[in-house]
Structure formats: structure tokens, C-alpha cells
Design a protein that fits this description.
26 strands, GMP Synthetase, Chain A, domain 3, Rossmann fold, alpha/beta, 21% strand
Length: 603
Amino acid sequence: MEARPGTVVAALEAAAREHGPRPALHFRSGGAWRSLTWAEYRDRALTAGRGLAALGLEPGRGVAILSANRPEWLFGAVGAVAAGGVPAGLYTTSAPEQWLHVVGHAGATVAIVENRELLERFATLRERLPDLRCIVLIDGAGGAAGEGIVAWEEMLARGREAPAGELERRIAAQRPEDLATLIYTSGTTGPPKGVMLSHRNLTWTAAAVAEAFGERPDDAILCYLPLGHVAEQMVSVHAPMVRGAGVWFAESLDRLAESLRDVHPTVFFSVPRVWEKMQAAIQEAGRRAPAWQRSLGAWARGVGLAGGRAEQRGERRPLLYPLAERLVFRRVRERTGLDRARLCLSGAAPISGDTLEFFLSLGIPILEIYGQSECSGPTTFSLPGSYRTGRVGTPMPGTELRIADDGEILVRGPHVFLGYRGDPEGTGETVDGDSWLHTGDVGSIDEEGFLAVTDRKKELIITSGGKNVGPQVIEVELQRIPAVERAVVVGDGRRYLAALLTLDPERVGVAAEAAGSEARDVEAAAVCPRFRAALEREVEVVNSRLARFETIKRFAILPGGLSVEAGELTPTLKLKRRVIYRNNAEEIEALYGDGGNEPARAD
């Protein structure tokens, strides 16, 4: 195994030394793609570090970053680390009160804010953040925006003027076991916790990921998920440093499809919801195709699924697989921008078997990754030629994995975090005396060593009859219904289970038409008797695959859906159950209004 840098700055210096003139970061400016080399990346990050120090950043203090993904996010974060500071990403979609919690908890004395729009919202918090000395504004003039606000270019100018010796001294004092960054958990069950990751956590994990996946300098990685999340930081910041891979910044998540066709990434990591939207788009295009193309596609998908299953068994693909590849699979990959992708990855939340098999049938195996912020991102991963549909892979080399007596997944290794900032009690509950990280997830390991994650330990529903039910398994099944976008199972302390369902705007029209309904949008479908009756039948089909105590007796449709802005979803689109329960308390009570145990129906 190759030598691994001990600190983040050492990793960046090694990348600049080995890949200096090669492009590192690609971004759109003035309607065209522009690039910065690894040498320029290193220089700008260290200049930002000197600038932050000149603004008064002291070692150990936080630097909050409120910005969409762009090169300056990386320069600010890595520069903060170089200066001995601790970067903490803020989600642009979060409410100001959530920013307040993170900035205060991180002990931030400097905040980096992208533009005037975000600055206006962030500035309302200034009086409640007495330790915050300075705001650095990336786009726009600084001083003109208000007292204590400095333009990005002014900060860099101060960095260029500052003596290099101070930053060099701070870098030389850093050790692999020192705190390098804070990742704030999505807070699905409470306020976000500050996960402390060390230099060793980040550099060791990045090297393990890069080695396992065979990353190389000519790889193209699309950066579009929020950089405040550990997964995107590992994919787009730390792992590329190990092999000098190139990172391309998408303009926005809304324009992801265009960015995919622009960049044609060789490595594409995504969350389940993005894969589901891609699936819906491909299926919709297929429905609009002529009959002969639909027939050809159905035949090819049958061959593709057989081929994917054979590959997992170590057997040869069907003889006609190359023909299906040439006639169908290659064209689908070209249209989606995945024609160069040798790695298609999914993580951060459970993905449905239906979506996995759909892409497998198109010759696009999605390799699942399992992990969490507390283990620097990944714990297990699937690899080309070593994956199982519905399993989340095998442990990273150099780590340990076991299942506790109660089914909880336990993890141990160099990637396990230092602890929760300011919360020794929470840290002690999460990491035991033998250094095992208690993930809070329930799962099993098969005879081949592949892990399956079945549920969240803390999210188990206990009915009034004493039955323990894992809601995620049922929710995944409900979300396989074509028109359903999200499913939230309820029933803790109740006689039976019920569900809150949201509808997929992109698929509801087709589903309604198939049901004989005239509805063509979510609002109309939610109140259409024919559509609701068809949905009841679909729920009964799901129920037929479940144990009796797991079946859904009633459901309600939420026409407004669930959103990040309402606090119901995390920025990576995980369910925040407590918020959903609170926001929809009346709908939930109505599902149990008569205390009955009736067949599934919409209320």
C-alpha cells in the first residue's frame, strides 16, 4: 500500500508536487468551462489560509462556509485547515436558525458567504454571534456591504501581503491526530451534532477510497451535492488529492442533467433520489417512443438484467448481451451523460431494489456505499465485479465490521471520528470502550461478507401490540409504486400502521391516466376518487408481500409533498421524522380517528 499523507495540507502539497500542471478544478465562467491546475489550487488555498490568519483567525477556531459548490469553497476550507482553523459547511437551503446553531457551536470567528442574497439572510444573525469577527463575501464588494465584511479578493490580497512564516509555522505544528474539520449531521432525530474529523480520518479514508476504486489522474468527478456533507467532501475534496483526479463543478442541482451531458464523468456518486429521478426520466422517454423501440428496449432490459445477475454469480453474461449493449445500453448512457462512467455509486440513504434492478437492466450497475459522518463517510463499499444488488458492499480494507447481539452494525478503524464537539456524553454513547462505533443502524452480514442494512435502530416503530417494525423496509416498498415519491410509515404506540404518501409530479400524470383518471397533476390526483382507488390497490399489493403486523391499514396523501425548506428533509433528502410528524399531526390523527383496524384506504 502506498504511503499516505498524514495531514490535509500534506496531501494537497503532494498532489501539487506530483500533478502540478494538470487540471484540478473545472468551473463555468462567462458561459465557458475554465480550469485551475493542482499548483494553482495549492497556491490559492494557502493564500486563503494566510488571508484568514490576517483577518484574525486563530488555531482551533471555526470558519463557517455558506456557499454553493465552487472552487472558493475548497480554497476557503483547505485554507482554514492550513491556518489551523476548523471549517464547518452550512447548507444554503437551511433556515437561518440552523445556521445560528452551527456557527455558534463551531466557535466560528470568520464566515465565508457566497453572495449578497445569502449575506442579507446571514447578516440577521450577527447580533446573536458575538464571537463572529468577520464575514468574507465571495461575490461583490466587501466594505460597501457593511462593517466587518471583507471582499474575497481583499482577503486574498491580505494573504499575499502577509509573511509566509506564520502560516508555515501553523502547518508545521499540525499532527495527523489533530482536529481538521467539523461535519454537522443532518439532524434527522434532533439538532445537528458537530462530528469532529481528524487529519488522519480524512487522509486515511481518502487514500483507502482512491485505492479501492482505482482513481486516476484522468478521472472526471462531478461535484454537485452539498459540500457541507461528508460524502461530497470525500468524493470531491479529499479523494481527488490522492490521485490527482479532476473535479468539475455543476452549476446547480437543478441543472444536473445538463452538467452530466457536459462533463461525461468517469466517476458519478449520487443519492437515491437523484437515481430515482433519472429512472423516471428514462422511463418517460421510453413511454413516448414508438412501439418497436419499446419492444426492443424491453428485450434488451431482460438481457441486461440476466447479464447483471450472472456477473454477480461469477458466470458469463448471455450471448446476446453485446447486441443489447450496442443497440440500447450504449445509447441510454450517451443520452444521460454516463457513457464514460466506469463507477456509478449511490450512498447517504437506502435505495430501492426496483431502481437498482432498473439500472442493472440497462448495463449500469449502481455500486452501493454505506457509512456516515462519524466514520468519515464510507464504511463498506461495492466494487466493479464485487457487488450484490440489495447489499451495501464489504468493509473497507483496514477496518472492522460486526453485528451486535441486538442487530446493530458496529464499526472500528482509522476512519472513526474523534467524537462530537462539546458532547462527551453523546460521544461515549456512540463509541464504546473498545473503540467500536455504534452506528444506530440494524443489519446483517451474509456468508460472502456483504452487508445488508435493514433499518435505523432508533427509528423502529413499536406498535401497541408490542411488535417492532422497521419503517424503512416498508417505505422502500411503497415508493416502488409508480406514482409515489415519498412514503412515511407511522404507528408508534398505535394498534396498526399507517402511511403518509407524497406523489411524484413527474410520474403522477401517467399513473393517473393508467387508472382511468383525468387528473394530470399532484393536486388533482390527490382528490380524484379513481386515482385514490387505484392507489389503494397498489398498497394492497405491497401489503401482500409483508407480514400481517407490517401491513398498511390506512394512508393519507400529502399534496404539498415534503421539502428541505420546511425542515422535513435533510439536504441529502433523508426523512426528518419528528418534523414530518409535527407538521402533519392532524393528518396522522385522522388516520386513527375511529381507532379501527380497517383495510388500506386513502383518508
